[in-house]
Structure formats: structure tokens, C-alpha cells
Specification:
The protein has about 950 residues and is α+β, with helices and mostly antiparallel strands. The chain has an eight-stranded mixed barrel.
């Protein structure tokens, strides 16, 4: 960096440097403006604006470079080759234009990254091709470190610059984008110039025509003038477009404000008035200053306000996008008018909800005409024929005077049917006969007949809904007339009821699986608890959590995960019986419940649920298993209220999830204390590293053939300030569950490598990898980075992994281990002989070492089976040419047995207990 500053200070004309920077700022700011204008366009129009932006910044980069070169004083006379100078300009324009196209087409992280490499590469290509055009009596030599730094300086600021230019909306972000582009250009130029070293040499003028500095100045002036002209022209076009848009918006505003037949205004999120047009002032009597800020309820009648109709209207518009309705509304002077109202949800260009547009029309005259039409219904057949409601007019003797065509259409009486003259009872029979033909059951038919007669007799003016099944739902309204007659209107509300039922179903069911959701499950539990308190039965609540479901989404895609959830939901539904419920609470969480009297019923229920996980999921050629952990809590033993019961079932589920091989766990009171303790440990573990509570101890690993020291295994210890020494068996599973294992594992690996660097080169250090760490996508990079940081030779690091950690996603885990081994790191399979150990795993991956689990060594002198297993593993290791290390050696007899059977290495209390860092022991340096 000091060389760069010296280059600027001693070898450049400061005024020309400032001029170059000014040109660069103008070009970058212009390109950002043009690029942002292109965001709102598409097709050829967008391509033209992006090309203009690329041309602007390309000329700007080129002019910046050569203006700065005019200010560069190499101490000798210099000239410029024409072809390379022109090529540098073409490269700058082409590559920056390409980067702009990529950033607009794919504005995500990957697209911006590719665009920044293209843009930074264009700056670098222009600079170094332009430098190749320089002809002077000297040889140019480049320092690779500064060249690499200049390339980094060109690319790194380009990423945030393009991100701000493409995604940003504010003036501040635009200025920041332009300045970052300027920074990339200037940093590359001066870092690249600092990389240049000149050695005097004769000038060869046979390479073609050279441009003198004066000619180059003229070319730059022309290019800059052209750049300025292009930018001014394009920005003028952009300004003209913006003015046209503003004029269009102004015209629209004038149009809305000038409408006097309708009240048109905006409401905020809270339903308060935000603006007011002339039509609203004329219709409702409020001046704009009086109306703005008023709640929507101010225009409703007191009766409607008591029923919260304004709030319901706004809520309906927010939920569905639109609300329409009719009713009485209030003016400022207290008078009423009949209004047709539409409230529509309004969003901005980003799709964000910004309020509601409300249109109100005075329909008082229409209302009067409609009422008049109803009074004259017998004489207005043509008008009645266009009604969307079916209408019947009866006289005082209950004889039908007239019925409009819509009545026959609703009830399916056939075209041309004329029931005039019949009594209400006869018409009811005709209607019900038509529905019976459509499949209406007989018992429903009699009930609907009574409902129809009752509504007619009461003539209360309130509507009655009649449900004839899925194919027809009718709303009937019966009003009495002064002469004793009746007017009955029928409205087909089948579609409305279907929509309402669908909305109600969606509100209470999971959209992916169709199972009841969390609110529906809670409602079912509450109802069953109420019944249980009255009738004395019991209730079992079951919380179900899928095991390693995230891995399925990560490795097979979310489509496979969704399909597995759907198939699982179907299996669960298929095994449920009366008095049982299955629900999906969200993600990979399910719940179930059952009312029962005998405990055997619960056990049978759990067996049916567990069986749903027994068979694999997915297509026949790509199946996978999906496990589940079930926690059970029972009313009234485990709680009186829903929240308590479900929480206790959740605690039991975590017990099942944490115990290997246990799929179902019943709630026990001590689980509360255990859960609180686990939460406290998880919270303390989060700060253990920064508080210096973690440490490593090291246990020696010896060769049995020579009794020499081969290395150490690093073992983690936690010295808790209150609990004292906490066992890894206790806190490691919690760290894996909370994700702290990633930070802790990285710390352990770094500390172990840093310590091993101080040992003799013949000694290795072994570090355990958690199963959860194999899910870490950047694990290979972490290992590589720590080896580079600590300077430890990769061949001296050995990572130990259990087969249990591999088995969950074998292909992915083995692929990750192969990448680590490619770094030169050794891989050992730990605890071999327990869990899922198999020859297939050893065959799939060339491990560098097999570690026999200490449980076999400890039993070796008492158990013939343990000795047989040890012999088998040692024979297996010899046949595969894999060294074998035995853990847990505590006696000389155990050591002799292992040596006799040909075991290569061993560790345990016989050779030494885990202790402090070996570098603190002076005897270590005598090894080897």
C-alpha cells in the first residue's frame, strides 16, 4: 500500500489524477442512473438502456485510465500503440455491458457475483491491455503480488456496487453504487501502476504508428466529450420519460379529483381516510380537511357500527383483495343514503400493501326504484325476468299470482314451467319433488318442507337458508304485504356457501397435507377435555417430530420432502379411528390425540402410528426411510389443561428423540427438571468459549510393537463455574441439538492443530468429528483454513468419525470425507464394532485407521466373545491393510493380548490418563 501511495505522489500529476477521478465519478454515476432506468423496462428497450450504461462506464473507465496515464511520469518519453489502445476501449465497454446485463437478468447473489467478476475483469482487461499499448525506451516488469491485489480491488467493490445499483431504490444507494464503482476503477489503476517496474532499454519503433501524448490527449478529449454527450442524451430521455409518467399520474389525479358522481378516496391500513375527491365532498358533505383522518365507521349508521360492519369490510378486503356491498350510509348532516360500496386492497410496485381504494356510489334512486318494482311486481314481468333472484308473489289465500323465470331456473323446474295458481303447499311439493329427483334423501325432504312452511307463516323479513346438499343451497326471504299476500324471493347461494366452506376449511387445515392445523387441533383437544371432565374418560396427546427431515429437503429437494409429508399424512389418516385426530402443526411437526378408557387402547393407537414409519417413502428406484419420535402425555395424570398436556407431550417427544433406539416416550414429572437443566446448559454453553471455560486434554497413543509414542487424541473438557467439570456425554448432545457444535468443533480443531504444531514432526493429533458437523456445508473449507492458519502439516492431523454419523446420509458423508482426505488429512473410523459397523462402510471409503471400541477391550480378559470380536476386527484390518488402534487399555494383560493378536496401536489408562497440553512437558521433545 505504501508503494501505491508513493506511485500516486511521486509519479503522477495530481491535477490530472483529480481530472481522471472526476471523469470516473461522472461515468459511474451516469451508468448507475441509466441502469436503474432499465430496471423498469423490458425487451429491446431495456437492452438499449443497459447498452447505454455499459457504453458510459466503458468510455469512463478508458478515459480515466488514459487521463491518469497522461499524468504519469515514467521519466522517459512515451507513446501509445493505436491497436492496443482501441482494443482496451472495446474490452472495457463489452465486459462492463455484459456485467450489467447479467446483474439485471439474475439479481440474486450468484448473478451479482458473476456480474462483478465480469465487470472487474473488464476494468482489469482495459488497464493491462492499455498498458501494453505504452511504448517507451524501457522494459516493463510486473510484480505479481500487486497485480493480484489490483485484480481483487477491481472485483470486490464491484459486488456491492452492482447490488446497490440493481436492488437499491434510494438516492443514497445510487450514490454509494457509483462511488464503489469509482473505487474499484481507481484502486485497480494505481495498484496496477505500483506493480510496474521499468528497466531502461532502446525503443523499437518498428511496431507501427504510435500516438504521442498530445494525440492521446485529443483522443481522450474526444472520447470524454462523446461520453458526456451520450450521457446527457440518455439522461434527457430518462427525464422525459419520468416527466411523462409524472404527467400521467397528475392527469389521473385530476381525473379522480374531478369526478363528482362517485366518492373516490384512499384508506390507510387502519381504515382512516387518506385523501378526498370532489365526488366524496358532494356525496357526504365533508370538506377534505374535515374528512382526512376520519375512520371509515364515521360514514356508517349507528346500527352498523354496533355490529362492527366497517371493521368487517376492511378485514374482508385485506384478506380477499376486494369487498363489495350495499347499505345505508351517513352524510355529515345526519341524513342517510343508500350506497353501493367497493373497497379494494392496493399494493405498490413491490407488492407491499399500502392501503385501500374506496368507491362509493349513491344508489338511493336505484333503491327506490327497486322497492317500487317489488310493489308493482305483478305488472313488470319483463323487469322481473332479468332479476338474479327467483321471485314469487302470493295473494292473501296463499295462491301464487306470478313467478319470474329465475324461480324455475333455481329449482330446476324446466323451461316453460308455470306454477301460477297453485298454493304454497303445492309449490313446495313441486320444488321438493324436483330435488328428490336430483338425489335429495326422503328424511331431508320432510324437514325442508316444514322449514319452508314455517318461513312463509312467519313472514318476518329475515332470510332462511335451505340446504339441499352439495348441488344446491337457497336463501329464501318472505315478506308480508298490506293486503295479506306474500312476496318470496329465492337466491341461489350455492357458490357462496362453497367458497365460505372452502375458506373455513383452509383456515382450519394444513394446505399441504389436508390435515387439521394447529388451531383446529387445539379446538379438538379443548372440546375433548370438556367432554372428559363430564364423562370421566381419559385423553392421550401425542407429539410427533420427524427425524432428520431437514436432511431429506437438503439432499433430495423440497419436492421430495413435501411428497413424503403428504404420503405420511395419508398413512396417518388411514390408521385413525373414531375418537382420534391427526394434525400437522407445521414443518416436520405432527400431533395426534385419542380419547380412551383402557390403557391398552393407547398402546394400540401408538402401534398404529409407529407402523406408519415402517415402510420407506419415495419412488421405487429412490426410496428413503423417514423416522419419527413420539412423546405421549395423558389427561388427567399429566395435566389438566391443553397447554400443560401438549407441553408435557413435547417434553416426552424430546426424550424419545434424544435416546437412540427409543421411538416412543411417555411423560414423566422429572422431564420438567431435565428440560430446564438442558435449557440452562444450552444457554451456558453458548458463552463457554468466550468465557474461556473450554479446554483440551490429550491422551497418548502408543505403538504396541515398539512401545513408542505415535501421537495424542485431543479430548474436550468443560469447566463450568457452578457445575464444575461437565461430562462431554452430557453437553455434546445439547451442543448438537442447538447448533453450537459447529462453533465448538471449529474451536477444538483449531486449538488441537495449534498445539500439535509445537510437537516433534513424527507425532499426530487425533480430533473427533461430531455427526452434526458432517452436515456443515463448509466443513472442508473450515479444515483447510485451520491447517493454513496454524501451519500444521495435514498429514499430522487425524479426524475420527463414527459410522453412526455416516449412516444417516452415507453418500453425502463419504463424499465430504473424500474431500477432506484429499487435503492430506487422515480419517479414522471410531468405535468400530458397535452400532452400525459394516463391511460395506469400510469397502466404500478407504479409512486410514480402525479404532476398536473400548468396551471390547475392557471385557477382553473375562469375555470370550469380546476376544473373538477383537481378533475379527484385527484380522479385518490386516486384510484391508488398515492399522488398528484399541481404546481403553488399562492393564498389562490387555496390552499383551492386543500385542499377541497383532494390534498396531493402543491408548488408555495403561499408557497414561488424559492430561495437559504435551507441549508443556519437556519430555515430549525427546520423542523421535
Amino acid at each position: 500500500m505504501f508503494d501505491v501511495l508513493l506511485c500516486i505522489h511521486d509519479q503522477h500529476d495530481h491535477w490530472l489524477v483529480l481530472l481522471a477521478a472526476a471523469i470516473c465519478v461522472i461515468a459511474t454515476m451516469s451508468s448507475v442512473l441509466l441502469l436503474r432506468h432499465a430496471r423498469h423496462l423490458s425487451g429491446a428497450a431495456a437492452a438499449r438502456w443497459v447498452s447505454g450504461a455499459g457504453l458510459a462506464i466503458g468510455f469512463g473507465i478508458w478515459a480515466t485510465h488514459f487521463v491518469a496515464m497522461l499524468g504519469y511520469d515514467p521519466g522517459v518519453i512515451a507513446g501509445y500503440q493505436v491497436p492496443a489502445t482501441v482494443i482496451s476501449l472495446v474490452m472495457a465497454v463489452a465486459m462492463t455491458t455484459a456485467s450489467f446485463f447479467v446483474s439485471l437478468a439474475w439479481p440474486d447473489r450468484r448473478g451479482i457475483a458473476i456480474a462483478s467478476v465480469l465487470g472487474g475483469g473488464g476494468i482489469a482487461a482495459m488497464h493491462y491491455i492499455g498498458m501494453s499499448a505504452l511504448e517507451l525506451p524501457a522494459e516493463m516488469h510486473w510484480r505479481s503480488g500487486y497485480v493480484a491485489a489490483s485484480l481483487a480491488f477491481a472485483v470486490l467493490p464491484a459486488y456491492p456496487a452492482l447490488a446497490l445499483a440493481v436492488r437499491g431504490r434510494t438516492l443514497r444507494s445510487g450514490i454509494a453504487a457509483g462511488l464503489l464503482m469509482t473505487l474499484a476503477i481507481v484502486l485497480l489503476h494505481f495498484t496496477g501502476m505500483a506493480a510496474l517496474r521499468l528497466t531502461p532499454a532502446p525503443l523499437d519503433l518498428r511496431n507501427g504508428v504510435l500516438l504521442s501524448p498530445g494525440s492521446m490527449a485529443a483522443a481522450i478529449a474526444g472520447g470524454s466529450l462523446g461520453l458526456l454527450t451520450i450521457c446527457i442524451a440518455l439522461l434527457a430521455m430518462a427525464r422525459q420519460s419520468r416527466l411523462a409518467l409524472h404527467a400521467s399520474e397528475r392527469d389521473m389525479s385530476i381525473f379522480v379529483q374531478g369526478i363528482t358522481d362517485c366518492a373516490i378516496y384512499m384508506l390507510g391500513h387502519d381504515g382512516r381516510v387518506m385523501n378526498w375527491n370532489a365526488g366524496a365532498q358532494r356525496l357526504k358533505g365533508y370538506e377534505a380537511g374535515e374528512a382526512i383522518g376520519l375512520p371509515l365507521a364515521a360514514f356508517y349508521t349507528p346500527e352498523d357500527r354496533e355490529q362492527h360492519l366497517p371493521e368487517h369490510a376492511v378485514a374482508r378486503a385485506a384478506a380477499t383483495g376486494k369487498f363489495s356491498g350495499e347499505g345505508w350510509r351517513m352524510r355529515r348532516d345526519g341524513s342517510r343514503f343508500w350506497a353501493h360500496v367497493t373497497i379494494e386492497k392496493v399494493a405498490n410496485e413491490n407488492g407491499d400493501h399500502i392501503g385501500f381504494a374506496k368507491i362509493t356510489r349513491d344508489m338511493s334512486r336505484f333503491k327506490e326504484d327497486e322497492d317500487r318494482l317489488r310493489e308493482m311486481a305483478g305488472h313488470l314481468d319483463a323487469a322481473l325476468g332479468n332479476m338474479h333472484q327467483g321471485l314469487c308473489l302470493f295473494d292473501a289465500d296463499q295462491n301464487l299470482l306470478m313467478a319470474n323465470p329465475r324461480f324455475a331456473e333455481i329449482w330446476g323446474l324446466g323451461e316453460g314451467a308455470n306454477p301460477s295458481g297453485r298454493t304454497l303447499g303445492a309449490i313446495a311439493c313441486t320444488v321438493l319433488d324436483a330435488q328428490a329427483a336430483a338425489g335429495l334423501p326422503g328424511e331431508r325432504r320432510e324437514g325442508l318442507r316444514r322449514q319452508l312452511s314455517q318461513a312463509f307463516e312467519q313472514a318476518s323479513g329475515s332470510s332462511v337458508e335451505m340446504d339441499f346438499g352439495d348441488h344446491l343451497v337457497v336463501s329464501m326471504l318472505c315478506r308480508s304485504m298490506p293486503d295479506g299476500g306474500r312476496v318470496i324471493t329465492f337466491e341461489d347461494i350455492t357458490e357462496r356457501r362453497r367458497s365460505e366452506a372452502k375458506i373455513a376449511h383452509m383456515a382450519m387445515h394444513d394446505s399441504l397435507t389436508g390435515l387439521p392445523n394447529r388451531p383446529a387441533f387445539a379446538h379438538w383437544i379443548d372440546a375433548e377435555l370438556e367432554q372428559a371432565r363430564h364423562f370421566g374418560h381419559q385423553l392421550a396427546a401425542v407429539m410427533i417430530d420427524l427425524d432428520r427431515f431437514k436432511e431429506i429437503n437438503d439432499t433430495r429437494g423440497h419436492g421430495a420432502g413435501d411428497m413424503a409429508l403428504q404420503h405420511l399424512a395419508k398413512r396417518l389418516l388411514d390408521v385413525t379411528e373414531d375418537g382420534e385426530v391427526i394434525a400437522r402443526l407445521g414443518g416436520d411437526e405432527f400431533a395426534a390425540a385419542k380419547r380412551f378408557r383402557e390403557r391398552a387402547e393407547v398402546e394400540n393407537f401408538l402401534e398404529r402410528l409407529e407402523a406408519c414409519f415402517a415402510t420407506p417413502f419415495g419412488p421405487a428406484d429412490n426410496t428413503f426411510h423417514l423416522g419419527g419420535s413420539l412423546g405421549v402425555a395423558i389427561y388427567p395424570h399429566d395435566g389438566e389443561w391443553r397447554e400443560q398436556i401438549l407441553n408435557n407431550a413435547d417434553l416426552a417427544m424430546y426424550r424419545a428423540k434424544g435416546n437412540l433406539g427409543e421411538r416412543i416416550a411417555y411423560y414423566e414429572p422429572e422431564m420438567d427438571e431435565t428440560a430446564r437443566a438442558r435449557r440452562q446448559i444450552a444457554n451456558d454453553l453458548r458463552h463457554a468459549i468466550e468465557r474461556g471455560e473450554l479446554s483440551l486434554v490429550y491422551q497418548a497413543q502408543h505403538s504396541l510393537a515398539t512401545n513408542g509414542l505415535n501421537g495424542y487424541e485431543a479430548l474436550l473438557r468443560w469447566h463450568h463455574p457452578m457445575r464444575g467439570l461437565v461430562s462431554p456425554v452430557e453437553f455434546i448432545p445439547i451442543a448438537e441439538e442447538t447448533g453450537e457444535i459447529f462453533q465448538i468443533g471449529e474451536w477444538v480443531l483449531r486449538e488441537a492443530c495449534r498445539e500439535a504444531r509445537n510437537w516433534p514432526s513424527a507425532l499426530k493429533v487425533a480430533v473427533n468429528l461430531s455427526a452434526v458437523q458432517l452436515l456443515q456445508t463448509d466443513l472442508v473449507d473450515v479444515v483447510r483454513g485451520i491447517l493454513i492458519e496454524t501451519g500444521l502439516n495435514p498429514s499430522r492431523l487425524e479426524l475420527e468419525i463414527t459410522e453412526t454419523a455416516i449412516i444417516a446420509d452415507k453418500l453425502r458423508a463419504l463424499h465430504l470425507l473424500r474431500q477432506i482426505k484429499a487435503l492430506g488429512v487422515s480419517i479414522a473410523i471410531d468405535d468400530f464394532g458397535t452400532g452400525y459397523s459394516s463391511l460395506d462402510t469400510l469397502h466404500s471409503f478407504p479409512f486410514d485407521k480402525i479404532k476398536i471400541d473400548k468396551s471390547f477391550v475392557l471385557k477382553s480378559q473375562q469375555s470370550a466373545e469380546a476376544r473373538a470380536i477383537i481378533k475379527a476386527v484385527l484380522a479385518l484390518g490386516q486384510s484391508l491393510s488398515m492399522p488398528v488402534l484399541a481404546e481403553g487399555v488399562e492393564t498389562v494383560g490387555q496390552a499383551d493380548l492386543l500385542k499377541e493378536q497383532g494390534c498396531d496401536e493402543a491408548q488408555g489408562y495403561y499408557f497414561g490418563r488424559p492430561g495437559r497440553a504435551p507441549s508443556a512437558d519437556a519430555r515430549l521433545h525427546s520423542v523421535g
